[in-house]
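User: Run a structure prediction on this.
Assistant: Running it now.
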Amino acid sequence: MARIVGGIATSHVPMIGSAIARGLQNEPFWKPFFDAYKPVHEWLEAVRPDVAVLIYNDHGLNFFLDKMPTFAVGAAAQYYNGDEGWGLPVVPPFPGYPELSWHVAESVMADEFDITTCQEMLVDHAFTIPMALLWPGEGSRAIRTVPITVNHVQYPLPSPARCYKFGQAIGRAIESFDDDLRVVVMGTGGLSHQLDGKRAGFINKPFDLMCLDKIVGDVEAITRLSTLDLVRQAGAQGVEFQTWLVMRGALTGEVVKKHSSYRVPISNTAAAVIVLENKYPALAEIA
C-alpha cells in the first residue's frame, strides 16, 4: 500500500521563481533564503518519495472568477505550465500519475467532498516554484505529481477546519491506494501577506510563528479560526495558509518536525518552509 512519508509546506512567491531563473541563489539577499532549503533536500534524499501530492491555489492560469471550484484534483498524464508574466519563464511539463489522481478523486468524493476533476490542467507558479525549490534543476521531472487546488480567490472560501478535514480525506485516500509508493504531501503559499488595499504590505510575524509552532502538535488551535479570522491575522492573501492545513491533515501518523525556517520579507511576503515527517509503524518496512 502507499505510504505518506511526510509533508512539506513552503511559500511560492513569484520573485523566488525569478531569482531561480536569473541564477541569484548566492546573492546576499537570496542566499539565506535558499540555504534554508538544503536540509529539505537532505530529508527528501533520505525518504526518497515516488510521488508528490501538491496542494496549492490557482492564480487565474487555470480557473477564473466566473468558474472557481472549491477543490479540484488534476488527473492528467502531464501538467503544462503557461505564461503568467511576473518575469517567470515557462517551464517544461511535469509528469502526472492519473491512476493515483482518480483514486484520490473517487475516495474523497466517497468521503462527501464535492470536487472538480481535471483531465487537462495548467499549473502556475504556486506549483512550479515549490517543485523548483525542492528538486532543483530537472530533478522535479523525476517525481510524479498529483496537483490539488483550493479556492483562495473567490468568496465564499472553505474554512480552516474544512481544509484540514479535506486533508484528512486525502490522507485516507493515499493510504488506501494499492501500490507500493512513498508519497510526500506539499502545501504551498503564504505566510502572512496582503497585496492590495489599505493593508498592502501587511505582515504579522507573531501570527506566522504561532502557525509554524501549532501546525506540528496543536493544529486544532488553528482550525478553530474562521476564514475571516485568518484574513484579519494573516492578510487577504494569507488565507493561502489553508494549503498548509490540507497538507497537515493528510499526515496520519506521529508528526515530527524535521526542519523549519522563516524569513521576512521575500518581496512583500513572509516566507517560510517546514518539513514534517509522518512516523508510523508501517513506515519502518520501507525505510
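The longest strand covers residues 254-266.
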